[in-house]
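dumping the sequnces here before i forget
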Amino acid sequence: MLTLCGIVIVVAGFAAGINPLLVVTVAALATGVAAGLNIVAVIAALGHAFTQNRYVGIVWLVLPVIGLLERAGLRERAQSLIADLRQATTGRILILYFLIRQLSAALGLTALGGHAQMVRPLIAPMAEAAAERRFGILTPATRFLIRAHAAAVDNIAVFFGEDIFIAIASILLIKGFLQTNGIEVQPLQLSVWAIPTALVALVVHTIRLLLLDRRLRRQAAAAERTP
Amino acid sequence: MITLPMIYDLAGLMFAAVALQAARDRANPRRLFSAGFWGLYAVNFVAGSYLPDFANGLLVLAMVALAALGLGRGAAITTTDDQRTTGAARHGNILFIPALLIPGVTLLGTLVLKSVIIAGHPLIDPAQATLVSLGLGVVVALIVALILLRPPALAPIREARRLVETIGWAAVLPQMLAALGAVFAVAGVGTVIAGLLNNYLPLHTRLLAVIAYAVGMALFTAIMGNAFAAFPVITAAIGLPLVVHKFGGDPAVVCALGMLSGFCGTLVTPMAANFNIVPAALLELPDRNGVIRVQVPTALVLLMGNIVLMYVLAFPR
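..and the predicted 3d for all of it:
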């Protein structure tokens, strides 16, 4: 039971708003010690796991390129492209990105997106520009809401698209797990059952993005009435 | 052969340059903390494989201490809004070329380059094709951007520092959470949870078992920040013994929908930092949980959807 203290520390620490990096480290050390390891072994295990997972940090290599392009006006260019499209709304742009991201993920192309590569330099500025073209200057709260939606689309589309591809890590994990438990399934048998949820996700999130458009319209109308 | 360690060296060099820039920035009163943090991260990238585990562990603890004390934020050296608007008009759509080269080369590498063999050696390590191709894509995009835009020589690294400081310590959080998951696994946290679930949940009907499995996957994923970590634990505790063996569910349907229920948990937890906390920092949202707030409604509807789908599809009549 004491080994669960790490979970308590994480939940309490996140709720209290303490620096998450510190919370997670304390939770890891406490869990290891509670499980009967000595402190040197726990620190070594932490160092080993952190180093093993360096691949997570590879994505930051894109920052010099993205920064250089931003410096030259990439986001402004993305915005002026959208400003010329009369039919573009925030919701419609995000729905289009959802479709592209989900379809490409279903084909195994999960690399075609990402918050650093696509959302910050291109998708979020386009979604903001569409709202600006319709409603003029946005309040900071509205701007942040649109950005959060842009990030959410990137996540939801890929989560509920990638499992349709037979060679994705989660499908292979399920296959491996069932195999060790004496059940043989083929990846294709698993991936077809990801399709219904993928369709539900597409429908549900499309509706939510259309509702976002409606909310932005109403906010703008309300702002006009109150001088 | 281009291998993952070479890409790690590249990342190490970038963070070392960021650390140097940070150290020289007198506008940041905490510049030495910031330089120390990114410098240690660079050391881990370049030398992590050669250092003993305990040394890497101490390095991580030092990074966490610096982050907890505060890294501050320096003065970015970049263009003004007006200069950017002018730049956008002058460069036009060629600005998109380097941006799209990154995913383009990553795809090409993943699909094609991994089977290219030069003089008997593969061009890139086929086991790590996507990560190596991403590194390659960045190098190609950077060269093209430098040719097209002709920025000052130090601009790439100044821009990298600007964005790295925008993200701050959150850049390291996903890797730290992965490390926490590994410590949890060593300590046997999953086994304890599975025991608790088996002892205290009365799951007498098919519907209750399905709900417990799907909700259990979502909750445990939210705690671990990762559906892959939750899947073996919750499936071994509820999915296989109850939903599949006791009530006769089809294992392929049950497991596929169980994993997707876990993904619903990923959408609502700060523990899945790379999906939820990092983009909030990257998009400069004042609310660290801004992305999560937007995702919660979709996640809840999809979790209910998965429960219904599993109940309907997993049990052939």
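Chain B touches chain A through 142 residues (CB under 8 Å).
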